[in-house]
């Protein structure tokens, strides 16, 4: 799984326990990101709908959520990956922009990424296309030279950046699911029926995933965009259409309130932490019209970049972070019996989460 700001890796067992406590058969992961939570819910037996507005997120969800692993010929997949891995290196957009103008990848790996990505394009429109893209995304992530965000790169090559790129088959999951590329509010407004369990992990401060992971967006779209700045971000990072209301202080709370009101689910779980623009009191008030409200919380390490320190776009350390830990929170809402069952299941899991 790729490195990701806001990853809920430590929360996954607790979230899964919440879904199991309410006997979830149909689940919604509305801001799916890397689809880590959606994958866990699918493994737990739920039919999952995973939604995100980022193209790279959609590819990950197509691979891990929408693809039924039982229907994939693993021998054929291994052969395709082996063929792509032997493509002669080729200097292209990734090498020029992300290795020479910026330093996200070593040029040796950049030329291999260019060649492999060109080869993957031959499979566009097929069921294997997102799976091959996911393999390349994860391979590139294992040899990048960042602290986990694509707003900057390290001044000196990270040791992993000097290792050769290696394609591996994604760990596909049995079962069916749905991947939706779209806006969260528009998606829930158009939903049919009711979910047993809905999980929301919305952006709630200035961090924009579209620009934080612009390299993945370009690698998936393969559109050779114009770019700007030392970080070589896509020019459309500047366009209003790429800006989410969840990343603006004035619009974040109203946007989240609209989404919460529109979701039709027996139990709603909303992730939140103490770095958000929203207060916990405001969030619980948004959830209260849904019925009973419960709050689970735990102490946690901040993302890896916070552990390393503050760097400028060239990877030079320019400061120390103010704190290395924060409080992660899950706000539950729904009928009293569902919230009580989820609280009892989640509390035991959270006691072992802090790390």
Question: Class of the largest domain in CATH?
Answer: Alpha Beta
Indicate the CATH architecture of the largest domain. 3-Layer(aba) Sandwich
* Annotated CATH topology of the largest domain: Rossmann fold
Helix content, binned percent = 25-40%
Beta fraction of the residues? Answer: 15-25%
- Domain count, please report it: 2
Strand order, sheet with most strands: 3-2-1-4-7-11-8
What's the helix-strand series? HEHEHHHHHEHEHHEEHEHEHEEEH
- Coarse structural class: alpha/beta
Main β sheet profile? 7 strands, mixed
Low-confidence stretches: 302-311
CATH superfamily of the largest domain: Vaccinia Virus protein VP39
Q: What is the average per-residue confidence, as pLDDT, rounded to a whole number?
A: 89
N-to-C span = 19 Å
Count of helix runs: 14
Count of distinct strands: 11
Which radius of gyration do the C-alpha atoms yield? 20 Å
Shape assignment: globular
Polypeptide structure, described:
Helices cover 39% and strands 17% of the residues. The chain has a 7-stranded mixed β-sheet, with helices on both faces. It has a two-stranded antiparallel ribbon with strand order 5-6. A two-stranded antiparallel ribbon has the order 9-10. It has 355 residues and is α/β, with parallel strands linked by helices. It contains 14 helices and 11 strands. The protein has helices at residues 12-21, 36-43, 55-66, 74-85, 93-101, 107-120, 129-142, 184-189, 209-212, 214-221, 249-262, 280-287, 304-308, 336-350, and strands spanning 26-29, 47-52, 177-181, 195-200, 227-228, 233-234, 265-273, 292-301, 310-311, 317-319, 325-334. The model is unreliable at 302-311 (pLDDT under 50). The chain folds into 2 domains: 1-69 and 175-204 and 252-355, Vaccinia Virus protein VP39 (Rossmann fold, 3-Layer(aba) Sandwich), CATH 3.40.50.150; 73-171, no CATH class.
């Amino acid at each position: 799984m790729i490195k990701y700001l806001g990853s809920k890796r430590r929360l996954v067992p607790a979230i899964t326990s919440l879904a199991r406590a309410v006997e979830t058969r149909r689940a919604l992961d509305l801001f799916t990101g890397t689809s880590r939570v959606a994958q866990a819910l699918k493994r737990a037996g739920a039919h999952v709908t995973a939604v995100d507005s980022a193209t790279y997120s959609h590819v990950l969800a197509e691979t891990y959520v929408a693809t039924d692993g039982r229907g994939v010929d693993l021998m054929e997949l291994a052969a395709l990956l082996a063929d792509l891995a032997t493509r002669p290196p080729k200097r292209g957009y990734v090498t020029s922009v992300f290795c020479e103008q910026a330093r996200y990848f070593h040029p040796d790996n950049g030329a291999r990424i260019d060649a492999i990505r060109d080869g993957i394009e031959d499979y566009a429109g097929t069921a294997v296309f997102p799976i091959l893209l996911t393999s390349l995304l994860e391979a590139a992530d294992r040899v990048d030279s960042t602290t986990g965000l694509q707003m900057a790169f390290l001044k000196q090559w990270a040791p992993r950046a000097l290792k050769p790129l290696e394609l591996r088959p994604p760990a596909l999951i049995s079962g069916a699911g749905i991947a939706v590329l779209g806006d969260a509010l528009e998606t829930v407004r158009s939903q049919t029926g009711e979910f047993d369990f809905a999980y929301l992990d919305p952006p709630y401060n200035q961090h924009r995933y579209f620009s934080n992971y612009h390299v993945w967006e370009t690698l998936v779209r393969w559109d050779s965009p114009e770019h700007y700045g030392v970080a070589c971000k896509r020019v459309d990072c500047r366009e209003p259409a790429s800006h989410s209301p969840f990343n603006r202080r004035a619009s974040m709370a109203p946007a989240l309130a609209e989404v919460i009101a529109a979701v039709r689910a027996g139990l709603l779980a909303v992730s939140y932490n103490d770095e958000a623009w929203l207060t916990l009191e405001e969030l619980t008030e948004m959830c209260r019209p849904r019925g009973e409200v419960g709050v689970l919380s735990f102490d946690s390490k901040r993302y890896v970049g916070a552990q390393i320190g503050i760097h400028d776009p060239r990877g030079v350390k320019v400061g120390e972070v103010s704190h290395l830990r924060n409080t992660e929170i899950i706000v539950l809402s729904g009928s009293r019996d569902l919230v009580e069952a989820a609280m009892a299941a989640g509390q035991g899991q959270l006691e072992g989460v802090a790390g």
